[in-house]
Task: inverse folding
């Protein structure tokens, strides 16, 4: 077990009151496992992983619960210690490669900066390593690419540079926050191949955040579905895709156009929109949008339950 | 990059030419006024008027007048003031340049260094008492008019406390040539430098703090944090570099304007006969050739300062190197 998150709660003090962005999220991650985290915008996918990275810098935020990395508690760890892990053992790839790199330095410089921050190597040694890394993420001409500035590269190239940077210190855990969302489909496929290949060569565990069920079905070993700051369903990829239990998961899968059979006239969409975190309903947060809600849903929040494929739904518990 | 710099240099020459034409036209082709009469000054005799008319070529086409004028300013340098009879304009300007440059350069070094330190410290300790104190002091600096501050400085260092140990080193007002007396040059300018710099330290410190805080919200700062860099390194290497662009823009405008004569109040208060004082006196006497020369000089400096700013941009931001 490389990462173990237990009952993670993240709340922000705002003018409108206390917002609980993450409410009791728990999950485990094994070595070289790919976990897909799915959910709509605002469901807390990114915030929960930023909490793992210790990257929530907002002074109005409070983080409760437990995040154990290789058995070591990260919540409440001093900033210095956390910094030694970040970029070294736990690396992150961000959503928008256009803005994720500092515009005024070459990508070679930026990758070497990370290597030198964690390994006491000379500048030229770091640069050699940068060249290897860029070759590894399929830059056609890695030596030349090193001296390029971010604005001289395309979106896909920049994302590969960001991935090379994330891999520079051989992290045991890689957090990818929607790394393909800002890219077009062919580039996206290349990046997914790369993540798979890197899992094989670097033996890194990967947490892959996305709202794209297609990406999850291609890449993830296990899947976690989030809604309004809570985990609503969790299971292996096959379990989740062949036997979706939570109505929200089913609705997400239902809104993917089918490849075979008759084409639906209109794709089904989930009615309504995610609830405001300031005014969550009394009972199940998905209740107001749920096609199969019944009385218990109004009264209490359904618990996730145990087992390999739990779902937080009273209908599932009933069945 | 070399190409971008060369191109900018070419543009600079072109702009200078444009300015010289416009300034010339404003002075010598304004409809309904006789430039000869204005150059000769009030109550000039017909003989003087005739001499002026001939010497500036006012009886010949406009482009000849322009060339004659430029020749007088830049080539032969024998433009003469008729108000102050026979006073050569160009040497007078040349004598004033070192005074203004000494004043403005020294103050600029002071305000750039101090305001960068203040901006960084305030941004790093954002919302703390130190940040609030620095910003309040900055506001105070901005609010103090330079002529008032200068007089207060003089009151303290020249009269009230001049005999105390703290200010006995302050020499009397006036300018000393650097080549004659480097120590005297430095000592006479210390108080003017501080006086002139205080306003700009306030402005620049506040601008830089705001720019750094804005940069710290950028995605690439989050990337830098995810890389495991220290907060100091993130601030100095990643946030400061991109924040300096606004700073450099402001600097170019202010520096150009100051060298071009806006340091007038400081020059007057401290008895420094610089470009500002020269222009002011020329305006008082309607000394047209002198005004013409100082306006040309001032606009040239604004143009040069802006070109230098653009060079610095190119150094700071690689995105501007291509195109």
Result:
């Amino acid at each position: 077990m490389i990462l173990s998150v237990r009952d993670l709660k993240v709340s922000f003090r705002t003018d409108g009151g206390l917002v609980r962005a993450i409410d009791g999220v728990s999950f485990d991650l094994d070595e070289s496992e790919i976990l897909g985290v799915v959910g709509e915008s605002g469901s807390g996918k990114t915030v929960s992983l930023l909490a793992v990275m210790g990257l929530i810098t907002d002074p109005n935020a409070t983080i409760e619960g437990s995040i154990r990395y290789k058995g070591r508690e990260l919540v409440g760890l001093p900033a210095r210690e956390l910094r030694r892990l970040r970029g070294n053992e736990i690396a992150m790839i961000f959503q928008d490669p256009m803005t994720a790199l500092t515009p005024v330095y070459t990508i070679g410089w930026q990758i070497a900066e990370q290597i030198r921050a964690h390994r006491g190597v000379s500048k030229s040694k770091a640069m050699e390593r940068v060249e290897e890394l860029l070759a590894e993420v399929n830059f056609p001409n890695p030596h030349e690419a090193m001296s390029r500035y971010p604005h001289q590269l395309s979106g896909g190239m920049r994302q590969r540079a960001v991935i090379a940077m994330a891999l520079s210190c051989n992290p045991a855990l890689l957090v990818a926050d929607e790394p393909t969302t800002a890219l077009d489909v062919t580039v996206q496929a290349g990046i997914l191949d790369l993540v798979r290949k890197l899992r094989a060569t670097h033996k890194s565990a990967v947490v892959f955040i996305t709202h794209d069920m297609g990406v999850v079905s291609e890449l993830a070993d296990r899947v976690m579905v989030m809604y309004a700051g809570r985990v609503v369903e969790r299971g292996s990829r096959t379990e989740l895709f062949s036997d979706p239990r939570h109505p929200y998961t089913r609705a997400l899968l239902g809104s993917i156009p089918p490849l075979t059979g008759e084409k639906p006239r209109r794709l089904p969409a989930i009615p309504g929109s995610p609830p405001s975190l300031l005014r969550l309903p009394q009972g199940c947060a998905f209740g107001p949008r749920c096609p199969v809600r019944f009385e218990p849903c109004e009264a209490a929040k359904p618990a996730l339950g145990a087992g390999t494929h739990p779902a937080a739904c009273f209908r599932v518990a009933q069945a | 990059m070399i190409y971008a710099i060369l191109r900018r240099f070419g543009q600079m020459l072109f702009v200078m030419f444009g300015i010289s034409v416009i300034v010339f036209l404003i002075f010598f082709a304004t409809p309904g006024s006789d430039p000869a009469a204005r150059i000769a000054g009030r109550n000039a005799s017909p003989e003087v008027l005739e001499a002026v008319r001939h010497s500036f070529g006012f009886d010949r086409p406009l482009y000849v007048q322009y060339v004659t004028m430029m020749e007088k300013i830049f080539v032969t340098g024998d433009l003469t003031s008729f108000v102050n009879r026979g006073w050569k304009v160009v040497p007078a300007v040349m004598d004033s340049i070192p005074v203004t440059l000494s004043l403005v350069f020294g103050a600029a070094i002071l305000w750039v260094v101090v305001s960068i330190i203040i901006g960084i410290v305030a941004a790093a300790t954002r919302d703390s008492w130190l940040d609030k104190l620095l910003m309040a002091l900055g506001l105070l600096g901005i609010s103090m008019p330079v002529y008032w501050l200068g007089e207060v400085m003089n009151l303290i260092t020249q009269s009230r406390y001049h005999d105390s140990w703290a200010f006995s080193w302050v020499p009397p007002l006036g300018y000393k040539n650097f080549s004659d007396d480097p120590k005297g040059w430095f000592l006479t300018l210390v108080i003017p430098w501080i006086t002139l710099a205080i306003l700009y330290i306030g402005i620049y410190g506040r601008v830089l703090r705001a720019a750094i805080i804005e940069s710290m919200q950028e995605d690439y700062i989050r990337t830098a944090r995810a890389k495991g860099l220290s907060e100091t390194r993130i601030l100095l290497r990643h946030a400061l570099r991109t924040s300096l662009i606004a700073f450099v823009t402001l600097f170019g405008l202010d520096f150009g304007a100051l060298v071009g004569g806006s340091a007038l109040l400081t020059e007057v208060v401290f008895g420094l006969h610089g470009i500002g004082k020269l222009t002011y006196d020329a305006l008082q006497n309607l000394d047209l050739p002198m005004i013409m020369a100082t306006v040309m000089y001032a606009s040239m400096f604004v143009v040069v300062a802006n070109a230098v700013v653009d060079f610095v941009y190119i150094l700071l931001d690689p995105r501007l190197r291509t195109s």
User: Anything to note?
Assistant: Residues 89-124 of chain B form the longest helix (36 residues).
